Amino acid sequence: MTAHASRSVLTRTVEALLAPVLAVAIAVVVGDLLILTYGESPGTVYRLLLEGTWGNVYGFGQVLYKTMTLICTGLAFAYAARAGLFNVGAEGQLAAGGFAAALVGLWLPGATPAVLAVLLCTASAMGAGAVTGAVPGVLRARFGASEVIVTIMLNFVVLALLNYTVASHMAVPETLHTEVMRVGFVARLGAVVPAFTGSAANFTIIAALIAAIVAWWALFRTRSGYELRAVGLQPDAAEYGGVNVPRTWVRAMMWSGAFAGLGGINYVLGYKHYYEEGFAAGSGFLGIAVALVGRNHPLGIILAAFLFATLSQGGLAVNALVPKQLVDILEGVVILAVATTVPEVQRLLRQSAARLVQRASTESPT
Amino acid sequence: MMLIAFVLQTVRIAIPYLLAAAGGVMSERVGVIALGLEGMMLGGAFGAVLGSYYTGSAWVGLVCAMGAGVLVATVLAVCTLRFRADQVVVGIALNLLVMGTTQFFLRLAFDSASNSPRVNGFGGEGSSLGMLSSFSNPLVWIGLAALPAIGWVLWQTPFGLRIRSVGEKPAAAATLGVPVRALQWRGVLLCGVLASLGGAYLALDQHQFTDGMTAGRGFIALAAIIFGRWMPLRIAAACLLFAAAETLQIQLQGAQLVPSQFVELIPYVLTIVALAGVVGKSAPPAALGKVE
Amino acid sequence: MIATGSAAPIAVRMQHVSKQFGAVQANRDVSLDVATGEIHALVGENGAGKSTLMHILSGLHTPSGGRIEVFGEDVTGWDTNAAIAAGVGMVHQHFMLVPTLTVAENLVLGREPTRGFRLDRARAEADVRALAARTGLRVDASRTIAELSVGEAQRVEILKVLYRGARILVLDEPTAVLSPPEVDELWNVLRGLRAQGDTIIIITHKLDEVVSISDTVTVMRDGRSVARLATRDTTPRDIARAMVGRDVSLTLDALPTLRSADGVTAAAAHDASAAPTTVTAGDGPPALTVRNVTVRGDRGTDAVTDLSFSIATGEIFGIAGVEGNGQTELLEALAGLRRPTSGLLHFGELDVTQLDVRARNDAGLSHIPEDRHRRGLVLDYSIADNLLLGQQHHFSSRWGRDAAKISQHAAAQIQKFDIRPPDPTLPARALSGGNQQKIVVAREMGRAFTLLLAAQPTRGVDVGAIEFIHAQLRAARDAGKGVLLVSADLSEVLALSDRIAVMYEGRFVCVLPASACSAERLGPFMVGAAKAEVA
User: What is this structure's pTM?
Assistant: First the structure.
């Protein structure tokens, strides 16, 4: 029995890691070629990339700052994906979350206790994301509308509405951002660890880590997570098991949106204390890459978010030698490679696992 | 005169939509979701500028644009058709990839992070045609003809019949000896060519490449495909409708009747409404997104 | 028993054909002779190997052994294109038509008539009309498939094969989806084709059809061909006997069987009409009461029509019948997966008509679904997680799932039901069919229940698991549960049930105590031959 258990754990670990590792390897090769087109040495560029991120506290702080948002958008994609849905709407949900947080921060009286204000801002960020996420969920459950297309289109709608609202009613003249909030500030890491001073890293990352733990708990340690994953894997079996499939879809999209919305507090509560047009543009889409590489598992997502945040920040560090878009290309390559190799790897491993088990069940009837 | 100006500007705005949507409908009609349109357009725009810049000929630019479009489409086809990777993920990743790649090579080619130098387009400056100058641009005519032509091909030729059968029920087509996979490849590659021409039009019309210059037009084309219910002539009408709304907004800019952001929303909102089935039943190709 | 070949030349000759799929022997040493210009019926129960044999003939499968001749030429191991070129065309059970294209477009797809670059639609439609007129297969060439009825769509399928020049036509259960008038029309068409010299092989398990349409019959059982008969020299009863085989009665030795030919139908008719009020074996209210239930199928027509019956506590009520006669829809309605359009359902005294799946489970329902890969298991879930599907709300504590309870439960069930390998963390996908089914059985029978729905409980499982599952079903009955057993395997229904109903076209055409049942007696009801006598 232990032999089986360890074997299946091993298989699963290999399956989880093989595709991302392969993808990163492919990306490194592509990156080498690209760097060579600029006549630079790949080794130099990668060293620069690491020095600019993990090599100094400021760079590391920037990586942590970016990690926070990517954990949230990665969780958003993964949570819906576990229910069999594609939430491509994290861009809009994230912006809606940030806007709601800023709105509450502007609206609350200045005398509001700090903890309460932060909690209220955070809750409204998640709420706004949840509402934005619920729309495609309901359209899917009720009308069968493809959530992929609806979330993509809704991104444009939400961003345009927010931009309009800010630009024409709330913006500080000559800028694209609102006034600074009265309350709802979260301290930067620099306030506690002076070495971080100057970097945008702040304590909202704790909220992201908590969100990852909650998502993990909800998915793998609760009944509703059990049902949600069943819906994602085999909707007919879930229905047989007494699960209301359309309702599960709506709920999954709401939570998915809430996770994305939470990402908005990073910039608004932790960094600038106002809402600004395009404050986290691209983080929503990058969340798909994070979830993909993290294999839709919250723990994997934390690691993948850190990896992609490192790449993003590293792009800035190497910009003197090669354009920072090098990392955008690498990210794209990683997504393509993971998306392409995962089905292959799964097919292969499934076959070999089935063979092993069949042999085991016929040879040793213990 | 106002009306003519309005129509001309609408057409100018509509051309990239028409070309990209023409490509997109080919891709979707063989069962591959056209989420990569944005990337194909951007690749086409960049290719057109490279070609025109190094040779001085807009025609060479067109050829280079198509080459870039085919390249992007090939990646899409290899991932989704050969390896059966998820079409949504691949489409989105391709957009990201092309965005990064064009910016990366923009600096290599032109030593600029934001735009290329001025390149030759079709006709353009100094032309005696004035307002009508855009009609000396072959892409305008290709754009206007593309969707009707595709409609004709889909419904009047054996090739079109096979394309439609592949997007609808590939298993049935296969039992009759129709080469399903080969047709899917052709649909995706054709999508790359047409979408890249849409991008080339943008770049050559503006005589330069600017960073991210397609600015979501690939998604508007996708919206037109859905709103036009995968029927070429309806799609063309949707493209023109979206373009007309933009024109109206530009021409009424002084009047401030409706905030410009709301006009921008029209394609997206209409698409969501169409998907929800509020206006008639929306029927995508049955095999869309499911490559066996 | 073996009819001598007619004077006409042989169109198809299959000799000693065998086909192996992995461990499954679908065909063994099958022989089939079909003369040119005759209608030949290939009959047998589900899983007897009929479709496999015809897939080999039409080039979809390569035989593992044996020899195939068509019009005197050895064609063993050919592919579909070669088969089509030689004039062998198969009409599949599931339509292979593109719903958005017109009839004419579907027919010409792949070999389109052209004029210049253009598809010559006028000629395509003219060709189709000419073919339709010649064969009597009436259908409007310019309509899209989606607008057609099922019967019309089938005509298109036949036309499609004929358009490609088929002279040997294979039809796989063509009447399964047709209404009686459509069946009559199909017969006329087939007779017309025969008159024009075409050869037709029709797969069926409805004996009334064999009698009304075929010239000769080959009976298959367990992958073998067991008899070749001339239709006019035989009776449905002979064919039914050959279909189910005598070895079935071995399991019935303990049961008294009625063999009086005249008494059979009379008793059946009587029992069928009395079905809703049949006596119950135990005391107290029946475990399940079904009153005038009508259920709509996926096609939009009624799959179950005005059905009433009850199952007593301590009774196994078996439903026999050819698949597709409403059994699936009935079970889904009972389980809460499909809402009946009318009628009432009671578990004991409790009206469950409006209750959802979970509430019905909590009211004492257990359900072994007919398709474990689609419904019964989440294949990527572990054995432990699968062992609580549908019961997940009983394995939750305040802060989430009760891991201790889950693993305890898994360990106990794995041991009790002998699931192998006994590792609760393995995904269900990795297990053999028999062990997968044991997971389902363990989950549904390893807990308190009063009513069990068991659909195809032993399909695709090995012999050891079959015995085990049968023992479990008997034990449930002996413990006073009500059991509804639905199986396409008649011998299973006969061996286990206390009462047996035969379902045909959404109704029970007979309900009999098992003691009065035998394969011979039920056969005619299953294939619709005895329907008229009941009605």
Answer: 0.85
